Automatic annotation (TrEMBL):
PANTHER family: SPORE COAT PROTEIN F-LIKE PROTEIN YHCQ. Keywords: Capsid protein, Sporulation, Virion. It comes from the Bacteria. One of its GO terms (biological process) is sporulation resulting in formation of a cellular spore. This is Spore coat protein. Belongs to the CotF family. Its main location: other. The keyword Ribosomal protein does not apply. Transmembrane segments: none annotated. It is found in: Spore coat.
């Protein structure tokens, strides 16, 4: 069977989609909360365009959830604010880890490299703490792909419905 004829996404594709939907859902909620506070009309238009772009991205990506492995429909549940804020910190800490790792590879100065490495380790520990918190509270079902993907759909739906 040709690759484009497959009806089920591969696991690695599914996990990449999960990362994209999770990050953009959190970002969309944050943008929609923030846009109301912006007084500069040009910046507000830029925010509105970003909101529209992310809504389009989410609508396109969530269509692929029907093709993910072992996904069944679940009843939507209201997420606690702590879940949103924890997810926001998880994404932020993950971004910091990636950014520091990239910066370290570009560093020629020894003392700067040591400083960035120390800060990278702090970012890794922050990621570990927030992940453990989310896992313990049932906010990040890391070992249950079906629950993880259903959580993404809930968050994306919430973000898309938000005014």
């Amino acid at each position: 069977m040709a690759l484009e004829e497959r009806k089920t996404l591969a696991w690695h594709e599914t996990l990449e989609i999960h990362e994209l939907v999770a990050a953009q859902s959190t970002g969309l909620i944050k943008l929609k909360k923030s846009v109301k506070e912006i007084n500069d009309s040009e910046l507000q238009r830029i925010y509105q365009q970003a909101i529209g772009d992310i809504e389009l991205n989410l609508n396109e990506l969530i269509q692929f959830y029907a093709s993910t492995p072992s996904v069944s429909e679940r009843e939507e549940l209201e997420r606690e604010d702590s879940g949103f804020y924890a997810g926001e910190l998880l994404i932020f800490s993950k971004t910091l880890v990636r950014t520091y790792a990239g910066a370290i590879t570009e560093t020629a100065t020894s003392v700067l490299r040591k400083t960035l490495t120390k800060q990278l380790l702090r970012a890794i520990h922050c990621h570990e703490r927030i992940f453990n918190y989310m896992y313990k509270k049932g906010l990040y079902p890391a070992y249950d792909l079906e629950a993880l993907l259903n959580q993404d759909l809930q968050n994306a739906t919430k973000a898309l419905k938000m005014k």
